[in-house]
Specification:
With 444 residues, this protein is α+β, with helices and mostly antiparallel strands. The protein contains 21 helices and nine strands. It folds into three domains: 190 residues, Hypothetical protein af1432 (Orthogonal Bundle); 100 residues, no CATH class; 65 residues.
């Protein structure tokens, strides 16, 4: 039997039967079986999303497998050589390797999101760049060995740096990449909603290579205009209804407020000593030094990578449980109890026109009643569904004329480069019934 007729199958709730040839399996398995990639099993894709959508317990591990499969499907459709497809599939597989606990939520632990998951990614990738790993990899991939140049190209694709082939980078990271194509379907499925659904198979059928002034790029034939409109609107609806769901954001605010406050008091509040000595506690102490401008970014990353690479959701949950059971009085303990028991805050949507007036009254009330920040939090999140000005999606018609999508689609032109946002108050239930506060909220 031909070796390539043997398929390695992963049953996936989104893509169904994901089939990988023996060659593809050999490309990926050394990375999948590594501790760094297995760690992604323990990091939820949507942060605190399952507090609102109980089915949203899927992980970065699920998504990265799906992303690699999607990358392989795109590569085959547009006819990439196998050597290029290998690089694309590995880059798609490892694109989220740098995420911390609760995915993007953890980035808010740093002031102004000064450190993001992409900042950790080069450290994870460097751990693979050893003679031992390359030798082991190349023994099972003699026809497609991993070289320094190839691995550098994989890193460049993941890190959005210049590559020798922009077409490969488009599959890994663009407005039409395998990442978005997978996570919209996956997040929609596990949240039990239809917002993120679009016709993936038709999208794939319409994908083609387009020659632009920047070289070969990933684009769509004119037959794909309808599905790409659907896809971009699906992304907009997922942002508005899932990723920026107010109660999800409120719980994630609670989580970050807990961790950031804990980082400030670990070394001074004696009951927190057991946490200070934990892996997460050690990391939070370093975070406090970084946020206090006592350490530069490069030094922080280099010093704390060995701890960060071991962190996952379980580290945070264990601390929440420990705090929630403490008898002492402290804001960290109060927040932990609400997270442990899912004590939902009240959400008050705000009219953008009256924000200055409302916030002035709220600040006056908080100062007067000595209300802590976490008890009444103002949360404001902007988003953009599609960027026209940054590397737009290209469409080629039956005559070979190439145009950016927004010049063809009235709908996409209308939402392109438009910044939208939500603004709301998250109010702890213990103070929500205060009469003075109710009078303020009456005018909202």
């Amino acid at each position: 039997m031909n070796k390539e007729s043997i398929f390695h199958v992963i049953k996936d709730p989104v893509h169904g039967t994901m089939q990988f040839t023996t060659t593809e399996d050999n490309w990926l398995k050394p990375f999948i079986d590594s501790p760094h990639f297995q760690r992604l099993r323990h990091i939820k894709q949507l942060g605190m999303g399952d507090y609102i959508f109980p089915g949203a317990v899927h992980t970065r591990f699920n998504h990265c497998l799906g992303c690699s499969y999607t990358g392989s499907q795109i590569s085959k459709k547009i006819g990439l050589p196998e050597a290029d497809r290998q690089l694309v599939m590995i880059a798609c597989l490892l694109h989220d390797i740098g995420h911390g606990p609760f995915s993007h939520t953890f980035e808010d632990l740093f002031v102004n999101k000064a450190i993001r998951h992409e900042d950790w990614t080069p450290f994870f990738l460097e751990d693979y760049r050893t003679d031992q790993f390359f030798d082991r990899y190349n023994k099972i991939n003699p026809k497609y060995p991993m070289t320094e140049d190839n691995f550098e190209e994989i890193g460049n694709m993941i890190m959005h740096r210049s590559t020798r082939n922009p077409l490969l980078s488009d599959i890994v990271s663009s407005q039409l990449d395998a990442d978005r194509l997978d996570y919209l379907l996956r997040d929609s499925h596990f949240c039990g909603v239809q917002y993120g659904q679009y016709d993936f198979r038709w999208m794939l059928n319409c994908m083609t290579i387009i020659q632009s002034d920047k070289g070969s790029r990933l684009g769509l034939t004119h037959k794909g205009i309808g599905v790409v409109e659907h896809y971009l609107m699906a992304r907009r609806l997922m942002i508005q209804n899932i990723y920026q769901h107010q109660k999800k954001l409120a719980f994630e605010y609670f989580l970050i407020k807990l961790l950031s406050t804990l980082s400030e008091h670990l070394e001074t509040f004696k009951p927190f000593q057991p946490i200070k000595n934990s892996r997460l506690g050690n990391f939070l102490c370093e975070v406090n030094r970084f946020n206090s401008n006592k350490m530069d970014k490069k030094s922080f990353l280099e010093k704390n990578y060995t701890i960060y690479k071991e962190l996952c959701d379980y580290d945070v949950f264990s601390v929440i449980k420990l705090l929630a059971e403490m008898p002492e009085k402290h804001s960290c303990i109060d927040i932990a109890k609400r997270l442990q028991t899912r004590c939902m805050p009240k959400i008050i949507r705000l009219d953008h026109k009256n924000l200055p007036k409302i916030l002035e009254k709220i600040d006056h009330f908080k100062n007067k009643k000595t209300i802590e920040d976490w008890q009444i939090a103002f949360i404001r999140i902007p988003h953009q569904s599609y960027a026209i000005s940054h590397d737009p999606i290209l469409i080629i018609n039956e005559k070979g004329v190439i145009k950016p999508l927004n010049e063809i689609s009235f709908m996409i032109n209308a939402i392109g480069d438009q910044s939208e946002e939500i603004a709301f108050l998250s109010i702890d239930k213990n103070i929500y019934e205060d009469k003075e506060l109710q009078n303020i909220l009456f005018d909202v």
